[in-house]
């Protein structure tokens, strides 16, 4: 079955004012819209479009006939989202399976209400994530070399004088001697300890950034000043944005430990369980395990449990945050991280007459396997979806912003002119 599904975007403060409305073809609401959830997560399940006589969620559909619509007789193990990031999200970590099961059981046994502000574990599942950029996306992801972090701190110290310079040098010193993994873990604990040096360091960092701007007559010259001091202007711009959004937040210092990643459209980032990260801006398609377990490390007004986060986080250095795709067939690529819960595929389609212009990036027709249910969203153009081998006609014309739930069965064929993202269970 090809079933249209829909949902109302979630209005988080960090969302874009217009990106999701533009994609969905709906009026701008005047409030930020952050995430469009396309799945059966109980926190915000998608709805079967035009269901009658009563509204029906995807959870209801699967429960009605789990063998036909579910995965192994149960709900979907993944959740597909479209993210529209208008402001930086919190620094966060998601637990692995063992950590989630233990944490959830402990909070249940302790009687912590599931809607309590200080609750860390809403379920017993892990939450690895993969995001593919639709626009340029910036993010903080995974620990970089401490050599690079110290270099930046000392470069900021060199941009200013007096107490501010000394304070930043002291922060760099904290990351100098010892095992890098232990130093990172200790640093996370320290920045939330209430030590006056932390607040002084945040002021000193702002002073150094301001001094770089004062020393220049414009943006181009300011960037040259930064480069002369071996500072990346994009890193400084990210710090400036974080300070403007979350003034005085210790997470600003934590961000210096992480890779700053700028994804071009079509590039992806994989966020394994235990990996510290934060999205900063842009629009992308995200798929994740069906969980809502989040532990935060600043850049937020929400609950921060730094002791629990420090216990869970993987403090190893990450060599490369980006995650490559593999070409499956003409017009079809896949991102297949090492988890059983999901994979994400992208099909690009064009009319036969346009194939020469598109090269190998698009095809007139793409076939997708549907061994398990598939959730797809059209992000550009208009696409015809059909299941040629079905006993009854199964065909749908899907335009940009619309989504389908495809039950398991024979493969589906995509034609038309547009771009489709499809999430399903890993092979």
TrEMBL record:
Which reaction is catalysed here? Answer: D-mannose 6-phosphate = D-fructose 6-phosphate
Q: Could you state one GO cellular component term attached to this entry?
A: cytosol
Q: Does the keyword Isomerase apply?
A: yes
> Which residues are Zn(2+)-binding?
92, 94, 129, 277
Entry coiled-coil feature ranges: none
Q: Which cofactor does it need?
A: Zn(2+)
Q: What is its EC number?
A: 5.3.1.8
Any one GO molecular function term: zinc ion binding
Phosphomannose isomerase type I catalytic domain location, by residue?
A: 5-145
Q: How is the cofactor bound?
A: Binds 1 zinc ion per subunit.
Q: Which family does it belong to?
A: Belongs to the mannose-6-phosphate isomerase type 1 family.
Instruction: Output this protein's name.
Output: mannose-6-phosphate isomerase
> Which organism was this protein described from?
Leucobacter viscericola
List the gene name: manA
């Amino acid at each position: 079955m090809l079933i249209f599904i829909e949902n109302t975007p979630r209005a988080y403060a960090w969302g874009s004012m217009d990106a999701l409305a533009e994609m969905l073809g709906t009026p701008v609401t005047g409030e930020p819209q952050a995430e469009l959830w396309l799945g059966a997560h109980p926190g915000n399940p998608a709805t079967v479009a035009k269901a009658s006589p009563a509204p029906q969620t995807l959870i209801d559909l699967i429960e009605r006939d789990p063998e036909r619509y579910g995965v192994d007789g149960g709900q979907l193990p993944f959740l597909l989202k479209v993210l529209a990031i208008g402001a930086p999200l919190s620094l966060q970590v998601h637990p692995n399976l063992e950590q989630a099961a233990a944490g959830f059981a402990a909070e249940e046994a302790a009687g912590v209400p599931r809607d309590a502000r200080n609750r860390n574990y809403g379920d017993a599942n892990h939450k690895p994530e993969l995001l593919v950029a639709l626009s340029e996306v910036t993010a903080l992801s995974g620990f970089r070399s401490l050599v690079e972090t110290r270099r930046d701190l000392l470069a900021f110290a060199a941009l200013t004088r007096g107490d501010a310079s000394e304070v930043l040098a002291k922060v760099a010193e904290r990351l100098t001697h010892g095992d890098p993994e232990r130093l990172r873990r200790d640093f996370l604990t320290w920045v939330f300890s209430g030590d006056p040096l932390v607040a002084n360091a945040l002021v000193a960092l702002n002073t150094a950034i301001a001094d770089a701007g004062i020393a220049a007559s414009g943006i181009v010259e300011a960037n040259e000043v930064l480069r002369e001091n071996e500072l990346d202007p994009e890193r400084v711009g990210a710090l400036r944005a974080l300070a403007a959004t979350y003034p005085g937040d210790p997470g600003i210092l934590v961000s210096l430990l992480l890779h700053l990643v700028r994804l071009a459209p079509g590039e992806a980032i994989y966020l394994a369980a235990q990996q510290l990260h934060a999205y900063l801006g842009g629009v992308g398609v995200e798929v994740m395990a069906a969980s809502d377990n989040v532990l935060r490390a600043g850049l937020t007004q929400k609950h921060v449990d730094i002791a629990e986060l420090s216990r869970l986080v993987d403090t190893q250095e990450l060599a490369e945050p980006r995650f490559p795709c593999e070409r499956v067939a003409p017009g079809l690529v896949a991102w297949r991280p090492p988890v059983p819960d999901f994979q994400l595929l992208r099909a690009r389609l064009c009319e036969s007459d346009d194939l020469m212009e598109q090269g190998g990036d698009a095809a007139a027709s793409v076939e997708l396997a549907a061994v398990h249910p598939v959730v797809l969203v059209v992000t550009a153009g208009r696409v015809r979806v059909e299941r040629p081998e079905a006993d009854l006609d199964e065909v749908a014309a899907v335009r940009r912003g619309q989504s389908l739930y495809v039950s398991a069965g024979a493969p589906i064929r995509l034609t038309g002119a547009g771009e489709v993202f499809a999430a399903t269970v890993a092979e």
